[in-house]
Amino acid sequence: MIHISILVPHEAVMASIVDPMTIFTGVNDFLEAAGKPALFEVQLVGLTEKIILSKGHFSVHTDVLLNKVKKTDLIIIPATSGDFKTSLKKNQDFVSWIIEQHQKGAEVASLCVGAFLLASTGLLNGKECSSHWLTANQFREMFPEVNLVDGRIITEQQGLYSSGGATSYWNLLLHLVEKYAGREMAILASKIYALEIDRKSQFPFSMFNGQKKHEDEPIKKAQEFIEFNLTGKILVDQLASKFAIGRRHFERRFKIATNNTPLEYIQRIRIEAAKKQLETSSKNINEVMYAVGYADSKNFRTIFKRITGMSPINYRNKYNKEAAIA
Predict the structure, then answer these.
(1) What is the pLDDT of residues 72-93, one digit of tens each?
(2) Model confidence band, residue 246 (pLDDT cutoffs 50, 70, 90)
């Protein structure tokens, strides 16, 4: 019997507690229906017997208190809401227990922004991690020792797992089902719960808003210049000269401030503008390409697919209802 501890931290997102409980107990039901023994013992584990969530709309009654769990096999860390620094302070008592259990051989999986609590243990230092694309800048600021992998839905290193944003954690749950119960059971679970198995990327869902929460004013002005001059030819040398900064120093400051090189930033801003036009306008692919500053269709398609994980035409067909009907 595999013992699973689903943590119930303060300010936890209710769905990320219920969903792992649903899938692991569901697998038990599938096994028993086939005349096989249940595989998982699932417990809700908390610091108190009752945790109030969602501003009082829900309460969760834990099965066992944290200090009573001496040994477990898999720890699930759900997502939390609100300010992450405040949440980590409220849930600090989980940290040493997670570290201790991992040292005893337990695997640990964070769902969505549960990665913040997992990263606070230090176990992810020097390792890869996924989280919600929307919180990437804040995650990197708080945990610079962790290699946040943009767009990845699942990471797995040395018994530590993480998932991408929101409901993409279902793919991590299916991955864990496959590990413990086999591929056949993971496929069955994916069909019964209507989940797309083996989804790899959250890039199609991500939106690039730039990174302006920094104090480097010349770099902010350079970002604004890029955003308002999409159709023109923008060279890094010209940007550096415009803001009276040597090129190498400009590139270094830009990377520190935005976590992107100037070229990456130009590409991401242009592709984000292209995405919006593909979603809402009746323009064809070439018209969109020219509108955001590209003249080479092959180059545009290559960069678009690298950033979004989809071709421009597939992206338009997915998000533009009129285009899909046509």
Answers:
(1) 999 999 999 999 999 999 999 9
(2) very high
Q: Give which of 171, 169, 113, 120 is closest to 146, Cα–Cα.
A: 120
Give the phi and the psi of residue 160 in degrees, each rounded to 5.
-120, 130
User: What CATH number has the domain spanning 2-203?
Assistant: 3.40.50.880
Write out pLDDT tens, residues 208-241: 777 788 889 999 999 999 988 888 888 999 899 9
Q: Name which of 271, 264, 140, 117 is nearest 213 in CA terms.
A: 140
From residue 168, alpha-carbon distances to 46, 175, 189, 277 in Å are 24, 11, 15, 26
Written as six digits, the tokens of 276 are: 């919006």
Whether residue 80 contacts residue 117, with contact meaning beta carbons closer than 8 Å, is answered with: yes
Average pLDDT of the residues in 125-151: 92
Question: Tens digits of per-residue pLDDT, 160-195?
Answer: 999 998 888 999 999 999 999 999 999 999 999 998
Identify whether the C-beta of residue 151 lies closer than 8 Å to the C-beta of residue 201. Answer: yes
The CATH number that domain 217-325 falls under is: 1.10.10.60
Mean pLDDT along residues 38-47: 97
In the chain, where the domains are located: 2-203, 217-325
The answer to whether 272 touches 315, Cβ cutoff 8 Å, is no
Residue 200, SS3 per DSSP? coil
Give the dihedral sign, CA 297/298/301/303: negative
